[in-house]
User: Fold these one by one.
Assistant:
Number 1:
Amino acid sequence: MEERIKQWGRELGFDAVGITGTQLEEDEARLLEWLGRGWHGEMDYMARHGVRRARPAELVEGTVSIITARLNYTPPAARDSWEVIGDSERAFVSRYALGRDYHKVLRAKLQSLADRMTAELGAFKYRVFTDSAPVMEVSLAAGGGLGWRGKHTLLLSREAGSLFFLGELFVSLDLARDVPVTNHCGTCQRCIDVCPTQAIVAPYQLDARRCISYLTIEHHGAIPEPLRPLMGNRIYGCDDCQLVCPWNKYAHVSTTPDFAVRNGLDDAHLAELFAWTQEEFDRRLEGTAIRRIGHERWLRNIAVALGNAAPSPAARAALQSRREHPSTLVREHVAWALARHEERNDSRDAASNA
């Protein structure tokens, strides 16, 4: 039965499927320690659900086994990430967010798998999860043999690196468990060394409050000023820790059409994106994960990136266009960015007169 379930998953487009149980005692202890340090920042839902995240049978009554699935997301033909990051006039968007919202894609595929299982095996209790509830997906995927937790805290696979989504199906069926794989990070710590904001404070320990993905997506208020210059042109997420990982030389391009690049966001100019109105933002990004942050935070993030861009008339003009924006949050970040340009212009003039 287990092999049939995995085959059905592959037929639906998943790149790998594993099966694990509900025991996460070690992960529960690590979760409580992480929460105790306050490293979850404004993600109050992490603390609100507490230990239920590590107790699947309490989260969904009747759960006996968990089917965990992996789906590659790297879009074909996207511009090289490092080239974009190295061009301060352009916007870097985490490669997972360039296409359709992954929540919708994974949920549909997992529901189709549940429907196929029901048709073939008979009725059973189940629930689909796609990063949409308190589920410890990396721990479950590792338990299901899909990879191991890397030092950057993401799941790593010898066959696929880390550029993939994870989804789960909690089921009342008693299925044979897969064997976890061993850790293959060794002495490598490239992910720790490359992190722009030093959010990976130690192997397997992430202070989300410093993470650019958290700051640009989860954080609602003003971005702490000391961290702004470190963000560069990353306006939605950050892939640096994955880009330097040796295992990602085995990452695969996605074959899922939904993950193809939309709106040219793999290689867009900051000034162009900053000019989008609320209506344009909603229309262009409909059906994507990015739309969830809203237009205000979109402008906040781009203002920081424009402040980090090389001084130019285009960058200054873009920032000037939003100086009187109705949002206090946007105005504050625009003012910071303009002041940063002024400081660098003054330094350049002083150097030329020396």
Number 2:
Amino acid sequence: MLTFPVLIGDIGGTNARFAILTEPSGKPLEFPTIVSASFETLDEAIRAIVLDQTPVMPRSAVLAIAAPVEGDEIALTNSAWVVRPRQMFETLGLDEIIVLNDFEAQALAVVALGPDQMEKIGGGEPEPYSRRVVLGPGTGLGVAGLVHSNDIWIPIPGEGGHVDIGPRTARDLQVFPRIETIEGRISAEQMLCGRGLVNIYRAVCAADGVSAGFNLPAQVTSAAMDGTDRQAQEALDIFVTCLGRLAGDLALIFSSKGGVFLTGGIAQKIVPTLKSGRFREAFNDKAPHSQMIADIPVYVITEPLAALRGLGAFASTPQRFGVDTSGRHWRHG
């Protein structure tokens, strides 16, 4: 059991969110969401946004970061921040720190949230204790699994956002060759994240022989959803279709009859597009197992602080979860 008060933090490539749990059953003290680039280091951000704003000093911390958690110095994948737990004992006065992958926290949130914090996109009813999949396009593309065994929920972190993704249709064959690659390959994250949406948009413009007028994901999304730009509309359609394909692939891999859960700000902003039919059509298109996939429900998590809710559930009731903290749990002294 962690010593309370406990600092919990969801630290992504773009934004960071923090709260303090004063006791296991108490309401968390929440702090403003920050842009990570506004601070040189994570320690500086925690000091300025949390510790300097409250008399409640945390004794322990559970942090979820957008990176594989390995070693005593953990560099975020899409940020300049480096997490140094042993240093945080001195800089922040903490006695105990657990660091998880950010999508472990999202997976934990799936069982911490209620149905009013989700929007369903087709499928049947979930099997209560069956496997689940969580994926979310944001600054990058996160993927995790969740399984139930021996009366506990076990999150399965990984780097599924970096799997290959390829063309299927004649139009895909016009667009995909124009998508920016990484060392010669198109990973899912090259298309299914904020910068990925811009990559798709630029590729569509190049295929059509027109200049790309937008540089930001929000610009592409806005122009697509209000119908003012044809290339932006097609880019968002391709984005949603490819997200559906990948989500369906993951549902097959995990046989996730407990559901597939989309999380993150992008999914929340494009719920009407996700519900328009393209996503579900691509998700179901998995012959010879299309009927099995069609029965699997998909949900968009609409709670903006989902990862914090998952971390809070783990910190308060660790016995509910089988979280492997080997090599990811530091104690002062």
Number 3:
Amino acid sequence: MGWGELSSSPCNLCPRECGAGRKDGQTGYCLSDNRIFVARAALHMWEEPCISGEAGSGTVFFSGCNLRCVYCQNYQIAAGKKGRQVSVKELAEIFLMLQAQGAANINLVTPDHYIDQIVRAVLEAKDMGLLIPVVYNGSGYEKREVIRNLAEIVDIFLTDFKYMDGELAEKYSKAPDYPAVAKGALAEMVRIAGSAAFDEKGMMQKGIIVRHLLLPGHKKNAKEVIRYLYETYQDKIYISIMNQYTPFVKTGADSGFKELRRKVTRREYESVTDYAIDLGVRNAFIQEGDTARESFVPEFDLNFHV
């Protein structure tokens, strides 16, 4: 399946297949039409060490989201309320400016609903001299055939795997099919990216990092995710176990989901990381200290720091 079919109108680009006429100006479930909106473009120091390094990852945060979890840490842009419109050419130029600033890579954050335009922008930037790796930083809720079409432009997949529990996925993300969809998407990522490769500075050049954000009170789901990832892929992937859940105001944590109104405890997090170690996981990233602070979320000020 090619991009012409995937980005057709009515839109069937994501697993929701909402059928919006995005090319005609209608917004889909992702709250986006066919115009590209970017909320932030800048060097970002807060990704995994092999992604940010000392130079920083060249992150481009796209507005809108097809998942919109109730606990979203980037709710300002996920709800489509922040963003500046850019053309495909301008997006390509942003990639090149980030490279000129010394970015370790180009990091596409929540890109799936703009992927047709992003592919064109990356190819255009490569024609103009883009050499650094391209990172696809998504929610895991992507069609397998969409991932398949990224083989020519994506080097690293930095993907979420949020749920093994469909009921939990329905409760927090209105996506009961999330576990099945994420499994299929990840399998395609592994097929495309293969084994991880690093440069002499320890920076990832290709490979897969799968993130799981531990939610308060949901150790069981976290352990099931980690077990699936390790038993299925062993050391072919890196697993990033995150404790940075922050109960922000204006997210689901303040909208009736009482269990989300607190941070993850140290005991909860250690229980999950100890489980991963006992299981045999070695290729992993573990967070230390109090990362559940609003300061870890970038300022979506619409000023592109390029």
Number 4:
Amino acid sequence: MSVVYQLLGEPRFGGILVVSDHASNAVPDGIHLGIAEHLLDEHMGIDIGVGSVGALLAARAGFAAFQCAFSRLVCDVNREADAPGAVPAASDGHAVPGNMLDDEARAARIARFHAPYHAALADLLDRVPQALILSLHSFTPRLATSTEERPWQVGVLYKEDERAARIAIPLLEGEGLVVGDQQPYSGRLLNYTMNRHAEAEGRPYLGIEIRQDQIADAAGQERWAGILHRLCNRVALELG
């Protein structure tokens, strides 16, 4: 059986769980994507910096991190299982030949990766209720298929439940950051994991997207772990 997630730290009742759907660029045995190896190190393969920031947070009291253990190109768990992007045939202008699957092979990919990832996350949240879920992603300063620069250092995403967002945005601005409210894209479009495990269950969550250049090195990762530690504790306190 494939390893579909890793759990860092010890989740505690009323704690804060960092959930990162795109923390890894691993391609498990038996999967052949048919792309250049270096693309796995780029945004199409992984949310750069997110795994390290999550690990730093998980080392702090009250935090744990639930991280996907395979690349989003293998299976994007932040998409509905039947969405084309769950097993992407192309990403950021690059074809992914190994994902051009027939219905049977696609269903097998979903059953091997998508279903058990979400089952494990649901089980964890049921067993150990959290004061706050931090959905942590990163985004590129500019997409390869676009000339538009993204000026936001951090974005806050949500669908219907914006309780945590309304608290977090002014706090992030108070850190001297350029903050995007539903930028660089809307959580109403790309929010599947939180829609399923937070919004649908009434669990409070905060969707954070950090621009990759902010967390591309160890110094940036430490800085952002500190920012998010302060932020999440304050948000959880005010929500509680």
